[in-house]
Amino acid sequence: MTFDQISTTHAGSLPRTPELISANAARTFADDGFTLERTPEFELLLTDAVIDLVQRQKSLGITIPGDGEYGKAMSSPVDYGAWWTYSFQRTAGLELTDFNPITTGPVRSEAGNIRLTSFADRRDWTRFAAAYSDPESGIQLGRNATAFPTATGPITYTGHDALATDIANLKAGLAAADLPTGFITALSPGSASRIGNDYYKSEEEFIYAWADVLREEYKAITDAGLTVQIDDPSIAENWDQINPEPSVEDYRRFTQIRIDALNYALRGIPQEQVRFHVCWGSWHGPHTTDIEFANIVDLVLGINAGFYAFEAGNARHEHEWTIWRDVALPEGKVLVPGVVSHATNVVEHPELVAQRIERFAGLVGSGNVIAGTDCGLGGRLHPDIAFAKLESLGRGAEIAASRLFTGSRH
Which residues cross the membrane (predicted)? Predict the structure, then answer.
């Protein structure tokens, strides 16, 4: 067999440059108090930063690059929420109110009627309250670029210009680096709906309203010939945000509504241009109350995507690679397991990366695996460490390919 390649990618967010962080911090807010104004100077800085970033990804061995989510504002080096808060910038019908999903009071669920509680009332956060509240513990939650608004009227998409800029910047980067394609991340309806709602009559109605809004992003990205990555930690992460712990059956019903809404938003979009990213929350906490992947993997595979990205490289979820011994990967689908992690400052050895890739290749076939990262590296790791991890990812993929396709040993 002739030598072939294991493709490499990442989960989206990459460290912003100091100049871009400073420029975001200097931006002024519109009258609504949460929409960041854009200037020609900022746009030029953003374009140049994305072009440089795509070239850097290529040099490190990443074959399917993204724009690093640079168009999603991050005004602090530690920011775990830019993947979500960007949506506020692109949606009408939102206002700042007293409601904050992070700090609002606890909500209690009961059998047959489960509801999300506040982020501060997550079961892992309350179990390790002393650690989460201790600035010396190593658990950082960071600082978001904008406040969390509430839906006070019908929501509609207003991000056409900002998204067009993201698309143009990535395409410019791809052209300069002579790479054929790349991806842009977009929020899922289920994750987007975890803000306040003072307008829609039900949770399901609110989720489907977000589906209509976000479909415009999905369509624009794929119509431009790029891959859209749907960021949806809520599918797994909501489990920890329900207090007390629900039954798996109740949670699956709760989750199915979110999957149905996402599939509704994806209708007619080619699956080969859709990548779905599920994670258990990227903050550096214990994660002892994460749901087992085996309990939701069939739901994830029910999403109309061609590629499924998930955590497989950290101490809480690496063991779950074995579920693919029993779960059949549908024809034409591809796994994008995390083989380096956002959850540790230790840079994975390329040989370990190769071994992780080979595990999955041995179960689903070498052609059905793309090597990725557990979650976004930007806002979670020091830039030097983050890019060293991408380099290790690229080198590990080369080692794995040399063994999988030629049988040679390193």
Answer: none
Q: What is the predicted pLDDT for the residue at 325?
A: 97
Instruction: With both helix axes pointing from N to C terminus, report the angle between 40-59 and 18-26 in degrees, rounded to the nearest 10.
Output: 150
Q: Please enumerate in sequence order all residues whose Cβ is within 8 A of that of 203, keeping only pairs 6 or more positions apart, or say none.
A: 115, 193, 197, 257
Evaluate whether 260 touches 211 at the Cβ level (below 8 Å).
no
DSSP 8-state secondary structure symbol assigned to residue 61: T
**Displacement of CA 61 from its chain's centroid (Å):** 21
Write out residues in the chain with pLDDT < 70, as ranges: 1-3, 407-410
Domain hosting residue 99, numbered range: 18-406
- Cα(185)–Cα(369) distance, integer angstroms: 20
Longest dimension (CA), the chain: 63
Residue written as tokens 């931006």?
A: 27
Q: Count of CB atoms within 10 A of residue 292's CB? A: 14
Angle between helices 203-223 and 248-265 (to 10 degrees): 40
**CATH code of the domain covering residue 399:** 3.20.20.210
Provide φ and ψ at 87, rounded to 5°.
Answer: -65, -25
Rounded to the nearest 5°, which phi and psi values hold at 214? -75, -20
For residues 226-248, b (16+ Cβ closer than 10 Å) or e, as one string?
bbbbbbbbbbbbbbbbbbeebee
Give the pLDDT confidence score for residue 408 in this predicted structure. Answer: 52
User: How many structural domains is the chain composed of?
Assistant: 1
Q: Is residue 325 part of a domain?
A: yes
